[in-house]
Amino acid sequence: MAFRQEAQFGQSLKKSEARGRLAEMIDFEKMQSQIVTQGEMIAEIYRMLTTNEAPKKESSDKPMNIQEASDFLGIPVSTIYQSKKIPRKRRGKHLFFFKNELIDYINSGA
Hints:
single chain; mainly alpha; 4 helices
């Protein structure tokens, strides 16, 4: 009887060791993926620093009205109304313009 209990204890010990090793493997795989992600982020930061490039902002900057966009672009308001190429957002009867989109429009030469 004592031999059977020792055998069962040995089997349960092996199972718990296996579970522990599996948990370590999972943690190691998670850690590897985090290291890769951080490496990619560092590479992007390095690229931006060496090319003197600022990160692009989303369209979340403060929107401009049509007069502000006209002043920024140096063209008349009527030209903005007539042009279908100038990037804009319409909310009801109001037009909104974002500086980074206007800069991209200028750089594209459209």
